[in-house]
Amino acid sequence: MFGGERPVGMFEAMSAEEWKGLFRMSAKQGVLAIVYEVVSQLPREMQPPRQINLRWAVSVEAIENRYDLQRRTSALLAEMFAEQGLQTVVMKGLAMGTYYPEPRHREFGDLDCFLGEGYEQANQICEQLGAKVDRGYYKDAVIRYRGLLVENHRFFLPIRGSRQMKAFERYLEGIAVGSEVRYVEDTKLIIPSPLFNALFLTMHGVNHFVSEGIKLRHILDWALLLKAEQHNIDWKEFYAWADRMHLTRFANALTAISIERFGLKVEHPDIVAASPYAERILKDCLQSDTLFNKGYSAWKGRFVQIKNRITSSWRYHKIYQKSVVVEIIRSVWAFFFERNPQL
């Protein structure tokens, strides 16, 4: 993925239990198909036992089939939105997948999209198509259409109760679509500008990190973004906003992990390539149990997130450089007194 020889020797003499452990860890970290790209190319004598290998191959095929189905449905929606004059900007899954050698191996969960002033019009179009639209959350509407879960974002960020976050939101909305519009292959799904992807990916990652931890996939997304776009990002602008939004330590740690563990080659002189927090964040990533797909109710999820923020407060103090108590008070105040924020 990053060039160079693969360390195949590490797979020699692995026991069946070790292979099972690698399979489970890869699935938990959201990189099951990525790891199998290496495993499937190993010499026959180094590959996992037949039963594990078969299970792995079937799981990867399921990931690919799910991607194909959801990408087709996403493209269909974007086409219908475009007929009404709406631009569909995609974030996270589909956008990041374009940086992977095999996009189908970047697991695709939801379609996260942003249509700007066409937010409500898009909701109504989906309802006319028979989709269920849940407008219960201020930041995005949740749409269920033909098996696809869509998060139609009214805002990119959790802006409630924060003037600083609202300023950042306005900036991101202004740079979301670059001067040269790029699409996901032959669709109407717009890939955001490289600077937007760098800032949004970092902010999104920090939000996950402080409330529940991150997966290895978050770090791999960052590494592949840098591999493809490091010369197309205004790093002085990036670090100016990163400093302002308390994202710098997190971004630097992700870069350092990408270099030290994934073999990323950083050539741009403005990129900070070292971090004293890299190993601690990587260890936390491999040990954390995220909330994704836990099936919690909204209130249970909020309670668990608050608990996680308190029990892992070092993430706030050391990395995010904010007070966890102040942030919890701010979010509670905003929940009760600014239920429907405006920019």
Fold topology:
Layout: H1 16-28, H2 32-39, H3 50-83, E1 88-91, H4 93-97, E2 111-114, H5 119-128, E3 132-134, E4 140-145, E5 148-153, H6 163-175, E6 182-183, E7 189-191, H7 194-211, H8 216-229, H9 235-244, H10 248-262, H11 278-287, H12 298-311, H13 314-320, H14 324-337
Parallel strand pairs: 1-7, 2-5
Antiparallel strand pairs: 1-2, 3-4, 4-5, 6-7
Number of strands: 7
Q: Outline, from the CA principal axes?
A: globular
What radius of gyration results from the CA coordinates? 20 Å
How confident is the prediction overall: mean pLDDT? 91
Structural class: alpha/beta
SSE pattern = HHHEHEHEEEHEEHHHHHHHH
User: Helix share of residues?
Assistant: 40-55%
Describe this structure in words.
- With 343 residues, the chain is of the alpha/beta class.
- The protein is 54% helix and 8% strand.
- It is built from 14 helices and seven strands.
- It has a seven-stranded mixed β-sheet.
- Helix 7 packs antiparallel against helix 8.
- It starts with 15 loop residues before the first helix and ends in a 6-residue tail after the last helix.
- The model has no long low-confidence stretch (mean pLDDT 91).
Short description:
By secondary structure, the chain is α/β, with parallel strands linked by helices. 54% of the residues lie in helices and 8% in strands.
Name a few traits of the molecule.
single chain; 343 residues; alpha/beta; globular
